Amino acid sequence: MTENEITKQLHWEEAILSALKEDIPWEDVSANAVVQTPCRGRAELLCKQNGVIAGLPVFARVFTLLDKQAEIVFHVKEGDEVKKGMLLAEVFGDIRAILSGERTALNFLQRMSGIATYTRATADLLKGTKTKLLDTRKTSPNLRVFEKYAVTVGGGNNHRFNLSDGVLLKDNHIGAAGGVRQAIEAARAYAPFVRKIEIEVETLGQLKEALSAGADIVMLDNMDDETLKQAVVLAKGKAETEVSGNVTKENIARLTSLGVDYISSGAITHSAPVLDVSLKNLRPL
User: Fold this and answer.
1) Catalytic residue among 40, 48, 137, 138
2) Which residue from 20, 98, 140, 244 has the least number of CB within 10 angstroms?
3) Which contiguous run of DSSP H or E holds residue 147?
4) Is 138 a catalytic residue?
5) Is residue 200 among the annotated active site residues?
6) Does 103 qualify as catalytic in the annotation?
7) For the CA atoms of 194, 199, 129, 252, what is the dihedral angle to 10 degrees?
8) Are 105 and 51 in contact (CB under 8 A)?
9) 280 catalytic per annotation
10) Which pTM does this prediction carry?
11) Which residue in the list 103, 132, 208, 229 is annotated as catalytic?
12) Contact criterion met (CB below 8 Å) for 135 and 101
């Protein structure tokens, strides 16, 4: 297991426990009322909508945290395309743990699968081009580790994970520094030499200034089609290009022929609808 995988699991564990504490602050009074002694049971995870499944390890961990003897038998793999009516998994364990963990487990799985589904549909529109689909930091508070993971399951790529992860100078950074060149020079002087400097530009004038100041990546923000075409030509061979600004599955097609390196979309995390799955047919064994 790599250091990155260990760190990810630690973040997952902390967030899953927090979600369980939110839902079960001291007891599940409903579950404890109807099942007052240990009783092993089985429930079925059913797919109610076509999509891409993501978050199976998180779904399983919810139940094993509540019941160390719980066992989840999956009939699909992470990233599989699933169809309405499919049996996705069987959950075995103490019925009280299944009842108590059901909503939390489904919340994670539905949200992550929804993101993977939306991402897959968006990334598919870029097939045959050199352009990579990126996510953003527009994620649910404290759930970023799950949502960005779901993007990768869906075939997208992660932009910086947090503010410590990379230099990205946006309009307010430029305003605070006094201009495009000043912002780039300040970042170059402060950041470790291994960091690339990315800067957001909204006009061709800003782009030219960013290129002359040595930006590594230019984010072409909310430009119209004609300006984007000119910007790509200007930046070619000088800096990598990223297009950003209200990009969705519905409008990304207009950007596919530009030849940019990256297209970032906040919509793949903040606007993805959940995938409908449910836990049904719980019964004692």
Assistant:
1) 138
2) 140
3) helix 144-153
4) yes
5) yes
6) yes
7) 140
8) no
9) no
10) 0.94
11) 103
12) no
